[in-house]
Design brief:
The complex is a heterodimer of chains A (154) and B (841).
Chain A: E1 2-9, E2 14-19, H1 25-40, E3 49-52, E4 55-62, E5 65-71, H2 77-95, H3 100-105, H4 107-117, E6 118-119, E7 122-123, H5 128-149
Helix pairs in contact in A: 4-5
Chain B: H1 3-23, H2 30-38, H3 43-62, H4 69-81, H5 90-98, H6 102-115, H7 126-134, H8 139-152, H9 155-169, H10 174-190, H11 195-198, H12 211-227, H13 229-237, H14 241-254, E1 262-263, E2 266-267, H15 269-283, H16 287-303, H17 309-324, H18 329-343, H19 348-361, H20 366-370, H21 373-378, H22 385-398, H23 404-417, H24 420-437, H25 441-455, H26 463-473, H27 478-491, H28 496-515, H29 528-540, H30 546-559, H31 566-575, H32 582-596, H33 599-605, H34 620-625, H35 644-657, E3 662-663, H36 674-685, H37 706-710, E4 726-731, E5 734-742, E6 749-758, E7 764-774, E8 778-781, E9 797-804, E10 813-821, E11 824-832
Antiparallel strand pairs in B: 1-2, 3-7, 4-5, 5-6, 6-9, 7-10, 8-9, 10-11
Classes of the chains: A alpha+beta (154), B alpha+beta (841).
Chain lengths: 154, 841
């Protein structure tokens, strides 16, 4: 299973953090710090895999964002690259040519999309279309409230 | 809830809102806050903005403002992501979850997943809300609840809600079913005992057409099979899981293009990989299952597109599966060849993955992997750090007697040029490989010297005693060794392990150094003074660590029996008697005392070291302090220690005694390599902390037994003071007495020292003492002090026996004595039963 998924910028600013194992705040901060240092410190044409403690770390850079996840020893690293890529594709479909700013300003949406794609560290839905439809329908439920409120809920 | 209901509810709250708006300004919107914070130019400015906003949010929370609660929590989550504390929003998340609005729930659950953790009791308050939401009429609300439970549910929550999850696992709604399946996986991970209750629901999971459900079902089945061998057996036999999975996989491969699941021309690679992984677990150690999946694995292995990463991901998983199940040899060869092709791929990730897989298979399919050795060795030169590390580990695994010279050349070259983070592991690996496969002693010493000179500061501390032992045991090339080490010292005294080994050698073999003899290479001309200059240089140098200084001082002292310039040595030793370093001072004072009061013992004490048994490894200081023995000649050479010799002796004893209840004697301690020594040493040492992990880089550490290998005198304190000695045997002039002690470190080990004395008029030669004990005991016999018992009680032969008696049974022993007396060989057997109770209780 995936233990965590982090998104951070080239300057090391965290844009998204999803944890699939229980960790206290202090431990989370440490993991984020370690990941950021390790991944940002990699020379440009290295392979996308690292070892950290007993985990495999897979990371991929998309424009100005690093997508970084920690896997168990048994997990398939090459497939993890595909998982990261699929998540980016889902974000891209939703936001239309997604960029880092979209994720900054709509971080909660990024989480909602992630929660339709992964759960408990495993892939939940392998069809792009289905995930997109679920998000759309959930958004509709939300929008209804907003319409009546005639202003955004938050 | 229907749109109409929603409309009515919001009509009311809008009024409330309007009233509220009259009284105070609405909190700023999330996006606006984000925009504002991003305009901050300094950290301090940002902190100020955040603090202001937090204060506003706090007061809003205090006023129980449920209209803007959602907005405030969302803002709090943003600030939390920036690294600011947000714990005061925890309860608010719970309130949002309890709200009827979907927007509230969405943010509430998100907040719960980010801010709450299962170590705080607060999270348990969620349980009831989740339970209600699991039964909600809107599937998206149910989905939120399942997601939260499946990501962060604690054990208690899982126990409370497992029933609900199980219900949802049986629903026909595929949206909910797939989420329920992953939620069940989480429940099982947290509370494995609940696995049973999900079993009925899994019955027809795989007949679903929906890929989401299929994927999550496979994950669920994988989790169950991995955790419980019973489940695994059940799924193999009763559910006939393998044929089902094979069928699904076949459909995926053979079916035409499906736009919904396609990734670069491959249909649903995520599902394919998970199925392959489940097949691996089902086929492991099971011939029937392995056979049933043979064809499909071959098909996937040959037909998958390798141009893109996704195809290689599937191939990778296929290879792992083929290697792990009981596949036929043709398939295994196919798999290794795929890995071989991976090694040549341009893509670094693929090469890395290939090296990792080869590392896993090198034990079982050694020969097949050997074929790719040259490619693997080339990877040592790769620029990528991860690849280099894997290549190094794999190279060490591939070293064998045939390729040792070539491989070592490459590895030494690698050691020269690699990053510091590798050097320690590489050096250890080289030492181990050299020890196992060295074609000659000289080659071995040369290799070690090369490592010490190039990576000397990175070698592990425990290599120094190992090397010292190796050098001691390579008797033929002592002069060559000491010469080379001396020359190395002249070049460079900064690398501590090298300096330590060199000083020790010079101390031991300094006489060979100045004698100008050397078999292997051109001897150098060195005078005693030059040697002493070097050693004194070490003592004085800032580069030398305290440990090194200790070595150097002892070396100087030893040379007092090998060199003629004793006065100079006396001077050096007395100078250090007032050294600030306590260790050095103590040594110098003791050595001084040796010169003054115990000069008659000096030559005996400082004699050449005997050949050591390789029993254990320990810090360098202990080695140095045990100087030579009084009677080195008495010890038999134990090198190389072999198990075959004692085995045959043990058989003799067993035959003679005819007992089935007698355990074989271990005459010598076997080779200390963790992998092979595992059995005997581990058994004997029992409770002593021993790292049973056969990782080659970490030698076994046995604190109390090192000293035994060198000296046959019992060195443990007599803890159980006053265990009375006993006479075990007294016949024909030969008397054997046992004295007892208990080991300091392990109360189950009793140490018996036998004293064999002879009060006849002729000496007894070729004396051999053997012992056997009942099966519940374990016995270790150390080397005797001598095999000649002088006549008329003029001396005794002593030997130490260690007995491990974990079950505290009554100690019994059978002994066999063989010796030559007055020219004729004699032999006798006896039983020893009257052991004092303190020796075994």
């Amino acid at each position: 299973m995936m233990r965590f998924l982090l998104l951070f910028s080239r300057q090391g600013k965290l844009r998204l953090q999803k944890w699939f194992t229980p960790l206290v705040e202090r431990e989370r901060k440490k993991v984020v710090r370690d990941m950021t240092l390790m991944v940002l410190g990699r020379p440009p044409r290295s392979c996308n895999f690292l070892h950290w403690k007993d985990l495999k770390v897979v990371y991929k850079r998309y424009a100005s964002l690093y997508f970084c996840c920690g896997l168990d020893d048994k997990d398939n690293e090459l497939l993890a690259l595909e998982v990261l890529h699929r998540y980016v594709e889902l974000l891209d479909k939703y936001f239309g040519n997604v960029c880092e700013l979209d994720i900054i300003f709509n971080f909660e949406k990024a989480y909602f999309i992630l929660d339709e794609f992964l759960m408990g560290g495993e892939v939940q839905e392998t069809s792009k279309v289905t995930v997109a439809k679920s998000i759309e329908a959930s958004d509709m439920l939300q929008e209804t409230m907003e319409e009546y409120m005639s202003k955004p809920a938050f | 809830m229907s749109f109409l209901d929603a409309g009515i509810e919001f009509a009311f709250s809008f009024d409330q809102l309007y009233d509220r708006l009259q009284s105070m300004p609405a909190p700023i919107r999330l996006r606006e806050l984000i925009r504002t914070i991003r305009t901050a130019r300094t950290q301090a400015e940002e902190r100020e903005m955040i603090q202001k906003e937090c204060a506003a949010i706090r007061s809003s929370f205090r006023e129980e403002d449920h209209t803007y609660r959602c907005r405030n929590v969302a803002k709090l989550l943003y600030m939390h992501m920036l690294g600011y504390p947000a714990h005061f929003g925890q309860l608010e998340c719970l309130k949002l979850i309890a709200s009827q609005k979907f927007t509230d729930k969405r943010i509430g659950y998100l907040g719960a997943m980010l801010l709450l953790d299962e170590r705080q009791d607060v999270h348990l308050l969620m349980t009831n809300c989740i339970k209600n939401d699991l039964n909600h009429s809107t599937q998206y609300v149910q989905g939120l609840a399942l997601c939260t439970l499946g990501c962060m549910g604690s054990a208690e929550m899982c126990r409370d809600l497992a029933g609900e999850v199980e219900k949802l696992l049986k629903t026909s709604n595929s949206y909910l079913r797939k989420k329920a399946a992953l939620c069940a996986v989480h429940v099982i991970r947290k509370v494995p005992e609940l696995m049973e209750m999900f079993l009925p629901a899994t019955k027809n999971l795989l007949s679903e057409k929906n890929h989401g459900v299929l994927h999550t079902s496979v994950v669920l089945l994988t989790e169950m099979c991995e955790r419980s061998p019973d489940m695994l057996a059940h799924f193999r036999k009763n559910e006939k899981l393998v044929p089902q999975l094979v069928r699904i996989l076949k459909n995926l491969i053979m079916s035409g293009y499906s736009p919904e699941h396609d990734v670069s021309g491959i249909s649903d690679p995520f599902l394919q990989v998970r199925i392959l992984r489940l097949l691996r677990i089902l086929g492991r150690n099971d011939d029937d299952s392995s056979e049933a999946m043979n064809d499909i694995l071959a098909q996937v292995a040959t037909n998958t597109e390798t141009s893109k990463n996704v195809g290689n991901a599937i191939l990778y998983e296929t290879v792992l599966t083929i290697m792990d199940i009981k596949s036929e040899s043709g398939l295994r060869v196919l798999a290794i060849n795929i890995l071989g092709r991976f090694l040549l791929n341009n893509d670094k990730n693929i090469r890395y993955v290939a090296l990792t897989s080869l590392l896993k298979t090198v034990q079982t399919d050694h020969n097949a992997v050997q074929r790719h050795r040259s490619t693997i060795v080339d990877c040592l030169k790769d620029l990528d750090v991860s690849i280099k590390r894997r290549a190094m580990e794999l190279s060490f695994a591939l070293v064998n007697g045939n390729n040792i010279r070539g491989m070592m050349k490459e590895l030494l070259h690698f050691l020269d040029s690699c990053d510091p983070e590798f050097k320690a592991d590489c050096a250890s690996g080289i030492f181990l490989a050299a020890e196992k496969y060295a074609p000659s002693k000289r080659w071995h010493i040369d290799t070690i010297m090369r490592v010490l000179t190039t990576a000397g500061s990175y070698v592990r501390d425990d290599c120094v005693p190992n090397l010292i032992q190796l050098i001691t045991n390579s008797v033929e090339i002592h002069s060559y060794t000491v010469q080379r080490l001396y020359k190395a010292l002249l070049d460079d005294i900064s690398q501590q392990p090298l300096v330590q080994v060199s000083s020790w050698c010079i101390g031991e073999y300094g006489d060979l150094l100045v004698s100008g003899q050397c078999e292997e290479e051109e001897p150098i001309q060195v005078t005693e003074d030059e040697v002493l200059d070097v050693l004194e240089g070490l003592l004085a140098s800032n580069l030398s660590s305290p440990v090194t200084r200790g070595y150097a001082l002892t070396a100087v002292m030893k040379l007092s029996t090998r060199f003629s310039s004793v006065n100079r040595i006396k001077k050096v030793v007395s100078v250090y008697g007032s050294s600030i370093d306590v260790e050095l001072q103590q040594r110098a004072v003791e050595y001084n005392a040796l010169f003054k009061k115990y000069d008659h013992m000096r030559s005996a004490l400082l004699e050449r070291m005997p050949i050591m048994e390789k029993t254990a490894t320990n810090g360098p200081t202990e080695m140095v302090q045990t100087n030579g023995e009084a009677e080195p000649s008495g010890l038999e050479s134990k090198h190389p220690p072999s198990i075959t010799q004692p085995a045959s002796q043990a058989n003799d004893l067993l035959d003679l005694l005819g007992g089935n209840d007698v355990a074989p004697v271990i005459q010598t301690t076997p080779a200390a390599k963790p992998a092979s020594a595992g059995g005997e040493l581990l058994d004997l040492l029992g409770d002593l902390s021993l790292s049973g992990d056969p990782a080659p880089q970490v030698p076994v550490s046995q604190p109390s037994f090192l000293l035994d290998g060198v000296s046959s005198q019992p060195l443990f304190n007599d803890v159980a003071a006053g265990i009375p000695p006993m006479t075990a045997y007294n016949k024909n002039g030969l008397k054997i007495e046992f004295t007892f002690e208990r080991s300091n470190t392990n109360p189950n080990i009793a140490i018996i020292t036998i004293h064999a004395s002879n009060h006849t008029e002729t000496e007894m030669t070729n004396f051999v003492f053997q012992a056997a004990v009942p099966k519940t005991f374990q016995l270790q016999l150390l080397s005797p002090s001598s095999n000649v018992i002088p006549a008329l009680n003029q001396g005794a032969v002593t030997q130490v026996i260690k007995i491990l008696n974990p079950q505290k049974h009554q100690l019994r022993m059978r002994i066999k004595l063989t010796y030559t007396h007055k020219g004729s060989p004699l032999q006798d057997l006896a039983e020893v039963n009257s052991f004092p109770p303190q020796s075994w209780q």
